[in-house]
Amino acid sequence: MLRVKSPKGPSPWGSANRIPSHLAPGGYIEQAELNPVPKSDDGSICPGDPFDTCGKLAISAGDAFGKSLLIEKTMEDDIRKAGFTDVERRKFKWPIGPWSNDQWLKELGTWNLIIWMRGLEGWTMRFFTMHMGWTFEGVKQWTAEMKKALKDRKYHAYQDGSVVYARKPVR
After folding, report:
1. pTM given for the model
2. Which of 106, 107, 118, 108 is nearest to 146 (CA)?
3. Is 41 exposed, middle or buried, given 0-12, 13-18 or 19+ CB atoms closer than 10 A?
4. Do 78 and 14 form a contact (C-beta atoms < 8 A)?
5. Which of 35, 72, 86, 112 is the most exposed place for a label (fewest CB within 10 A)?
6. pLDDT digits (tens, 9 = 90+) for 66-108
7. Is 19 helix (H, G, I), strand (E, B) or coil?
């Protein structure tokens, strides 16, 4: 079994020759990814809101860097194209914050909020300054505004997540 997580980076399955040689024939891989674009099902994220802006900036930053950050959307196809078989995808919603009425999702959202609060500046500083022309002060100001929105309980944001399981061909 090989677990893959490529946080905020390119899919590792660019071509069939990218199948790990140390994975035995018939061995399984698992890749788990979150989409960096926040969503809501209840309309609590509106165009121009901080969460909406965050998603657009994430896509732009990846494009400016030359790598898509939307791995969660493409990894199933990438894994198939790389030559894996028995590909299975499981999708889920990962809340950002403790807004859910479901106790498990509330706890998961609390942990994800901590990850966002602690990681946001680090995720964005290099992308925004080196690849999008932002200043250090501009990134600090934007992350402060985004952190304020992250704490605002009016937003019922989540991230799409997926786990893909697949098997290396026996050949």
Report:
1. 0.86
2. 118
3. exposed
4. yes
5. 86
6. 888 888 999 999 889 888 999 999 999 999 999 999 999 999 9
7. coil
The single residue listed with the structure tokens 């509330």 is 106
* Angle (deg, nearest 10), helices 50-65 and 136-151: 140
Residue 163's identity, in one-letter code, is: V
Considering only CA atoms, which of 22, 32, 33 is closest in space to residue 168?
A: 22
Q: CA-based Rg of the chain, rounded to a whole angstrom?
A: 18
User: Can you spell out the DSSP letters for 130-164?
Assistant: IIS---HHHHHHHHHHHHHHHH-TT---EEEEEEE
**pLDDT of the residue at 16:** 46
pLDDT: is 11 or 77 the higher one? 77
Structure confidence at residue 3 (pLDDT): 65
Residue 19 confidence (pLDDT): 65
Give residue for tokens 């660019």: 14
How far apart (Å, rounded) are the C-alpha atoms in residues 147 and 157? 13
| pLDDT tens per residue across span 28-49 | 999 999 999 999 999 999 999 9
φ and ψ at residue 134, rounded to 5 degrees = -75, 160
Burial category of 155 from C-beta neighbours within 10 Å (exposed 0-12, middle 13-18, buried 19 and up): buried
Strands 158-167 and 85-95: antiparallel
What values do phi and psi take at 6, rounded to 5?
A: -115, 80
